[in-house]
C-alpha cells in the first residue's frame, strides 16, 4: 500500500494547519514546496516567485516535490502539503508543457487524495500567498478535474474542525 498521502485543494483552505495537526499526532509531514520556494526566493531576492516568474516557480516546485517524494520512504503515513501533481498541473496550465502525465506515472501517491474546498471564511493572504480567493478557487477547480484524470480518488474534506479533519483522513485511510 502506498503510504504517501497528498493533501491538496484550495489555497487558504486549511491544508497547512491540518498538516501541523497530523504532525502533532506523530505522522511525518512534508511542507508545501511552494511556500518553501517563496521563502528562499524572498530571502535571496530571487525571481522564481509566482507573481514574478510563475513558470520558473512551477519548475522549482516540481524539482522540490520529486526530491520530497523520493526521500519519503519512511514507515507509517507521510502527508504532503501539495506535491508533484499540483506543481506539474500548474506548469502545464501556464505553459502547455505536457509533463503532468509522465511525472504522475513515475511518482505515485496514495490513491486517495484529500482536497480542501474553497472556504472564504478562513481564507487569508500573507507574504507567501498573494493571489486572490477567486484565483485560489480556479486552481482548486483545475485540481479537482486533474486528479481523477490521473487515476486518483478525490476526497473533498468537510468544513469541520482541524482535529475532526485529521480524524476523518486517518479513518478513511484505515478503511482502505
Structural commentary:
- The chain has 176 residues and is of the alpha/beta class.
- It has a single domain (4-175), classed as 3-Layer(aba) Sandwich (Rossmann fold).
- 50% of the residues lie in helices and 12% in strands.
- The protein has a five-stranded parallel β-sheet, sandwiched between helices.
- Helix 6 (133-149) links the parallel strand 4 (112-116) and strand 5 (153-156).
- The longest helix is centred in the middle third of the chain and has 17 residues, at 54-70.
- The protein is globular.
- It starts with a strand and ends with a helix.
- The mean pLDDT is 87.
- Residues 5-165 form the NadR/Ttd14 AAA domain.
Q: What are its keywords?
A:
176 residues, 7 helices, 5 strands, alpha/beta, Rossmann fold
**Which superfamily, in CATH terms, is the homologous superfamily?**
P-loop containing nucleotide triphosphate hydrolases
Q: Give the end-to-end Cα distance, rounded to a whole number of Å.
A: 9 Å
The H-and-E topology, N to C, reads as: EHEHHEHHEHEH
Largest sheet, spatial ordering of strands: 2-3-1-4-5
Instruction: Report low-confidence residues grouped into runs of 5 or more.
Output: none
Q: Class in CATH?
A: Alpha Beta
How would a textbook summarize the main sheet?
5 strands, parallel
Helix content: 40-55%
The total tally of domains equals: 1
Rg estimate, integer Å: 15 Å
Mean pLDDT: 87
Amino acid at each position: 500500500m502506498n503510504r504517501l498521502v497528498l493533501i491538496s485543494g484550495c489555497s487558504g483552505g486549511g491544508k497547512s494547519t491540518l498538516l501541523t495537526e497530523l504532525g502533532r499526532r506523530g505522522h511525518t509531514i512534508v511542507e508545501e514546496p511552494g511556500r518553501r520556494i517563496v521563502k528562499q526566493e524572498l530571502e535571496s531576492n530571487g525571481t522564481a516567485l509566482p507573481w514574478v516568474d510563475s513558470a520558473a516557480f512551477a519548475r522549482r516546485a516540481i524539482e522540490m516535490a520529486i526530491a520530497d517524494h523520493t526521500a519519503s520512504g519512511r514507515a507509517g503515513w507521510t502527508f504532503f502539503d501539495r506535491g508533484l501533481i499540483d506543481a506539474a498541473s500548474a506548469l502545464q496550465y501556464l505553459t502547455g508543457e505536457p509533463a503532468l502525465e509522465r511525472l504522475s506515472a513515475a511518482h505515485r501517491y496514495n490513491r486517495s487524495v484529500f482536497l480542501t474546498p474553497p472556504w472564504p471564511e478562513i481564507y487569508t493572504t500573507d507574504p507567501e500567498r498573494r493571489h486572490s480567493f477567486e484565483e485560489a478557487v480556479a486552481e482548486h477547480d483545475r485540481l479537482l478535474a486533474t486528479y481523477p484524470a490521473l487515476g486518483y480518488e478525490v476526497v473533498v474534506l468537510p468544513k469541520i474542525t482541524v482535529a475532526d479533519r485529521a480524524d476523518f483522513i486517518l479513518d478513511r485511510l484505515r478503511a482502505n
